[in-house]
Amino acid sequence: MRYLTIALSKGRLTELSIELFEKIGIDCSELKGSSRKLILCDEKNKIKFSLQNQVMFLHMLNTEQQI
């Protein structure tokens, strides 16, 4: 099964995003830790989180294939 990848901008919106994802049942425990990893997984729901700085996040939005 393939993963759904969600890109998150590092910074002040990260905590708000984590709260919202947890409310809908997505495990974000790895995102709360002090890890320096940039790609984190929720194996249960097959979701990958990609933490990006603002410049990389905007670049990714502009170059990703639209669904």
List the helices and strands and how they pair.
Blueprint: E1 4-9, H1 13-23, H2 29-32, E2 39-42, E3 47-52, H3 54-63
Parallel strand pairs: 1-3
Antiparallel strand pairs: 2-3
Overview of the structural elements:
This is ATP phosphoribosyltransferase. The chain contains three helices and three strands. A hairpin with a 4-residue loop joins strand 2 (39-42) and strand 3 (47-52). The protein has one domain: D-Maltodextrin-Binding Protein, domain 2 (3-Layer(aba) Sandwich), CATH 3.40.190. With 67 residues, the protein is of the alpha+beta class. The model has no long low-confidence stretch (mean pLDDT 78). The protein is 37% helix and 24% strand. Strands 1-3-2 form a three-stranded mixed sheet. The chain starts with a strand and ends with a helix. The radius of gyration is 12 Å and the shape is globular.
